[in-house]
Amino acid sequence: MNQLLDRAQQLFPYTQRIRRDLHRFPELGFQEHRTSGVIARELENLGLEVTTGIAETGVVAQIESRHPEPVLMMRFDMDALPVVEETNAEYASQNPGVMHACGHDGHVAIGLTVAHLLKEMRNELNGTVRLIFQPAEEGLDGARRMIAEGALGETTPKFALGAHVWNEKPVGWLGVTPGPMMAAAEIFEVEITGRGGHGALPNLAIDPVNAAAQIVVALNAIVARNVSPLQSAVVSVTSIRGGETFNVIPPKMRLQGTIRTFEPEVRSIVLERFEQIVNGVAASAGCEANIDLKSLTPAVVNDAGVAQQVMNSARMILPDSTILSDFRTMGSEDMAFFLNEVPGCYIFVGSANPAKKLDAPHHHPKFDFDEAALTLAAALLTGAAVDLLS
Ligand code: NI
């Protein structure tokens, strides 16, 4: 299998050229028209049959072998973020205000490199690999739309794979975690209504500012007192708004924030307590609360069996890597929707290189990564696909 890593390394100039080209021309979710064109062109150059226009800009192609089944799907996201790039890289964004600040340019380059490798290894393949290039991962529901528009194909895949370059960890590090590994994300907006009045006569008003302050503090008790100390959750209030000046008690306050959990039972406890605390504290202050709570994504849950097989493949293909099997993050990912349909494994591929100053965090204006991670990811995904199908 180590010929696989060698071959992926030989393809590095190709991988890098694709990544840098996409990095120069980043596009926001559902607007990835140029990106989608590059993907379709490259896959067609390999002689693959390509379907475009799924969920606006999504692209799907299949690598077929003598055995049509089982099917393994791989998902690569392709959208950029509304961030002004400050990397000074020679391949920096030429699209002002838009930047590949999460590494999805790299994910597309990985996907196209995997297509090359699998095409060459067709004879060793005992099934079909379905490559899914997905738009609009950044909170825009691209995965759900791809699935709704038929991206999974006629034969539901038996396995799913995907990977994210991960700048929290150095290149050469891999995170292959069975079970929940990225959090379920909810977002909330709470409106607290009291009665406005004069700042000097609070007894004649019903003060929503005071109520909002007490709610923020009381919400901290959920993680501290209601979630088991051996499980995890986050309740973050990230915005409090209301009031204009020093002598007027405003009639309303608005809170916004996010809730993150891994296990469904923890999620339901946290959501239940959230509503009780917000309504209860608001009522105790004589205010009324109106809660708008939306689920963004479920948790990303890796299938234990598939994760174990990916781990075995990783040890064979990338023997020099450091592999962690218990790395989790409170970040969220809409890969969760694919993994709800198909048992699979989402892999973190360490991509930071502090010596080259390539270690800014994801979504930062200086975000950039060591492109060697792309080769490692492409080799691992290809090898794991071949192994899972055999
Ligand atoms: Ni991302």
Structure description:
- By secondary structure, this protein is of the alpha/beta class.
- It folds into two domains: 4-182 and 299-389, Aminopeptidase; 184-297, Alpha-Beta Plaits (2-Layer Sandwich), CATH 3.30.70.360.
- It has ten helices and 16 strands.
- It has helices spanning 2-10, 12-24, 33-45, 104-120, 142-148, 208-226, 264-284, 304-317, 335-341, 372-389; strands at residues 50-54, 58-63, 71-77, 128-134, 159-170, 173-175, 179-182, 184-193, 197-198, 233-241, 248-249, 252-261, 288-297, 300-302, 322-324, 344-352.
- The protein has an eight-stranded mixed β-sheet with strand order 1-2-4-3-5-16-6-15, sandwiched between helices.
- The longest helix has 21 residues, at 264-284.
- The chain is elongated.
- The model has no long low-confidence stretch (mean pLDDT 97).
- The chain binds nickel (II) ion.
Quick description:
Helices cover 35% and strands 26% of the residues. The chain is of the alpha/beta class and 390 residues long. It folds into 2 domains: 4-182 and 299-389, Aminopeptidase (3-Layer(aba) Sandwich); 184-297, 2-Layer Sandwich (Alpha-Beta Plaits).
CATH homology superfamily of the largest domain:
Zn peptidases
Main pleated-sheet profile: 8 strands, mixed
Number of strands: 16
Class per helix and strand makeup: alpha/beta
Terminal CA distance: 14 Å
Q: What percent of residues are in strands?
A: 25-35%
CATH fold-type name of the largest domain: Aminopeptidase
Overall structural domain count: 2
Mean pLDDT: 97
Estimate percent helicity.
25-40%
The CATH architecture of the largest domain: 3-Layer(aba) Sandwich
Rg on CA atoms, Å: 24 Å
Number of helices: 10
Flag low-confidence runs.
none
Q: Spell out which ligands are present.
A: nickel (II) ion
Shape: elongated
SSE ordering: HHHEEEHEHEEEEEHEEEHEEHEHEH
Strand order of the largest sheet: 1-2-4-3-5-16-6-15
